[in-house]
Amino acid sequence: MNTAIAQQRAIHQEPVMAAHPQDLAFNATEPAPEGHRTVGLVTVDNPKMSARDVNVHYGDKHAIKHVTIDIGTNEVIAFIGPSGCGKSTFLRCLNRMNDTIDGCRVSGEITLDGHDIYARDLDVVQLRARVGMVFQKPNPFPKSIFDNVAYGPRIHGMVSSKSELEDLVQWALEKAGLWNEVKDRLHQPGTGLSGGQQQRLCIARAISVSPEVILMDEPCSALDPIATAKIEELIDELRANFSIVIVTHSMQQAARVSQRTAYFHLGDLIEVGETEQIFTNPVHKLTEGYITGRFG
Amino acid sequence: MNKPTTTARGVYTIPEERRIGGKAHLALVTRRNAAERRFRAYGIAALGLSLLFLVTLFVTIIGNGASAFRQTYVKLDVNFAADVLDPDGKRDPATLGSANYLTLVRNTLRSQLPDTEGRAALREAQGLISSAANYQLREMVLADPLLVGQTRPVWVLASALVDATLKGGIDRNLPESDRKISDRQLGWLDKLAAEGRIERRFNSVLFTAGDSREPEQAGIWGAVMGSFYTMVVTLALSFPIGVAAAIYLEEFAPRNRWTDLIEVNINNLAAVPSIVYGLLGLAVFINWFGLPRSAPLVGGLVLTLMTLPVIIIASRAALTSVPPSIREAALGMGASKMQTVTHHVLPLALPGMLTGAIIGMSRALGETAPLLMIGMVAFIVDVPTGFTSHATVLPVQIYLWADSPERAFVERTSAAILVLLGFMVAMNALAVILRKRFERRW
């Protein structure tokens, strides 16, 4: 890792408090001032992944501007922000899913355990096995529940026998809290499950290859409150084994599941901090405007 | 402060009659409902009209062609005279094979029919039965040499003239000079019919023989086999090439000017008149590569060129219809691009691709124009036995028969059309079944 940058922690805690409530009027279409520097503690002591000065361009559009942030080991970090603020885009930089989008250019440095994931000699296939992803809409393969979970271990050659594979599938499904619901119908299509079960199946699929980081892109936005509660519980349990990055539109969800929260605004990373601090005592006025729901 | 928002002209109120339920509004609703009814009526009229055309087509074709599936046969008591067939009495197959069966037929006719003295009368009598009778008798003798010297009743194929007359294709009430069949022939026919020596049977010749100048001996089997070999070549080439091209363009190729250009060209190629492909095939495959003319191989190659754009477009559509979330899921699991395609995208797109391929195939099966250019329009009697033997195909056979002057070819043309339509319907039904059976919904 670039220690020079790591040490140069972007602490920028001048109070940017608003004098009058009117000044807090939050305008979702107005970018942060040019050359904005992230407020709060962007680095952690034991980072799993670190991003340094990451920029993303879609053609002419500057979608992510100079984002620097660490993702700690065994922590849940939530990315929040208005629609189109780039939080999903940044999330997809972390396992290079943006590679598949035409006209998308990523610059800056992103490391996983100190190794640059955009290095030329890095195998993106391996990276994605180490950094798993759960998508907004549950997207199980139109195959059986078993095959859904077994797919990753199979293509990465992680099991040597059928019984091993069965054990691994059971472990992943148990971990995802789905085993008891599906153990009698493992060979029925995964698409026949309910929305919440499908999403937990996708989580089981993601953890089946024992990734180190799990990226979750609004994993509950298509689910009802009961299924959402189950997934949130699950995220909390998974923290013991994985680092989790979750993008969410629900601030309550961010508050419930995460230890740290990062607020994005039109491509800028405005503020990062302990979740409790962000929600109770935001520093930047844009963060405060968003969290208190004052849209201009 | 606290004034209600108003427009520049003040607060706007909708006049009473224009509110919901007002007079003007009711008139509007009436007009709208009438327009809707009218629109539905147009739709039903269009549907009715197209159904009417379809029914007309089928009634005409079936009306014309149904009679072709029955063929008239005449029973003659044939004396397999030893002095004609085997003067030496050795029963040597070579002698038996080269004997003069025409004489046998003539003798038979002389013995069975009255007033057959003179060459003209004999020729008219011969006109009652097909020239295939000679070969039929020869086959019988070669199969069983013990027949020589015996007299046996044999059902022989009637001539097309007799067949047409009995099916009502020739008006008996016309003066003799205006019809092809003579009074004398009609007399013989009536006599044979009265003796129960005329029968109509299933026309197996139509389904087992190749083409012939004599309608009663002409069949579609040669054309069916020609079509079969041509389609095998077309399918074997166009499906893998088309699918591979579609997969590359859709899943791997970068989006840039070159791929845009290729895409536009593929779409244009699908709209190129098929005869142009025939000319291309003639120039490239026959004149340059030196492949044989009139061969299913070349026909298949030409139809491949024609079908490829259709299959590529259909396959790309099938690939696009696979939701991107499936690709993301696979890529997110660390599957390589190729694994994503072969494990997930292709299986989901395959039914759509097959449907496209079958539709393309059924178009190719019905294609005539490009095959005319490469010589598949020749008169070919033998049933083709391979990809390079001379052949014609079903639609070209229909074209050839429709061009023939003989009355009996009219019904055969329609019969061939029925067979071709049968193949088409079967293929399209297969496409529908495949789609219904394997289609997945998200």
From TrEMBL, chain A:
Residues 49-291 form the ABC transporter domain. One of its GO terms (cellular component) is membrane. GO terms for biological process: phosphate ion transmembrane transport. Keywords: ATP-binding, Nucleotide-binding, Phosphate transport, Transport. One of its GO terms (molecular function) is ATP hydrolysis activity. CDD domains: ABC_PstB_phosphate_transporter. This is Phosphate ABC transporter ATP-binding protein (PhoT family).
From TrEMBL, chain B:
It holds the Pfam family DUF3333. GO terms for cellular component: plasma membrane. Belongs to the binding-protein-dependent transport system permease family. CysTW subfamily. PROSITE patterns: ABC_TM1. InterPro entries: DUF3333 (IPR024573), MetI-like (IPR000515), MetI-like_sf (IPR035906), Phosphate_PstA (IPR005672). It is a multi-pass membrane protein. This is Phosphate transport system permease protein PstA. Its main location: membrane. GO terms for molecular function: phosphate transmembrane transporter activity. It is found in: Cell inner membrane; Cell membrane. The lineage of its organism: Bacteria, Pseudomonadati, Pseudomonadota, Gammaproteobacteria, Candidatus Competibacteraceae. Keywords: Cell membrane, Membrane, Transmembrane, Transmembrane helix, Transport. One of its GO terms (biological process) is phosphate ion transmembrane transport.
